[in-house]
Amino acid sequence: VQLVESGGGLVQPGGSLRLSCAASGFTFSSYGMSWYRQAPGKERELVAGITSTGGSTNYAASVKGRFTISRDNAKNTVYLQMNSLKPEDTAVYYCKAWGGPWGQGTQVTVSS
Asked: How many angstroms separate the CA atoms of 75 and 23, rounded?
């Protein structure tokens, strides 16, 4: 079972990034998926979640309207489109299968 995040990096405030999480070793289409983040010195927090079919999503208040979670079950991949990024979005971003494993994380840094 493996989750591998990619797409992180350094971006200026107001910019955009698209994170990807590629899954393998389990029946991806049967699991809801979530993105979490952890900033230095802070607890890990839920950013967004999506059901197994993609029919329902939820977001933290701090990212609602700026971030979009989606999935492609044919590609075993979940995405997080992040727009209008702010310095406070700087964190390591992790994907997680509901009731399943964590990915290793990808760093997102928002700075001018």
From this structure: 9
Closest CA to 92 of 42, 10, 37, 12: 37
C-beta of residue 111 within 8 angstroms of C-beta of residue 87: yes
The amino acid that residue 78 corresponds to is: V
Check if the beta carbon of residue 108 is closer than 8 Å to that of residue 93: yes
Angstrom distance (rounded) from CA 79 to CA 73: 11
Could you read off the pLDDT of 23-52 as tens digits, one per residue?
999 999 999 999 999 999 999 999 999 999
Residue-wise pLDDT for 64-111, tens only, equals 999 999 999 999 999 999 999 999 999 999 999 998 888 899 999 999
HSE toward the beta carbon, residue 107, CA cutoff 13 A: 5
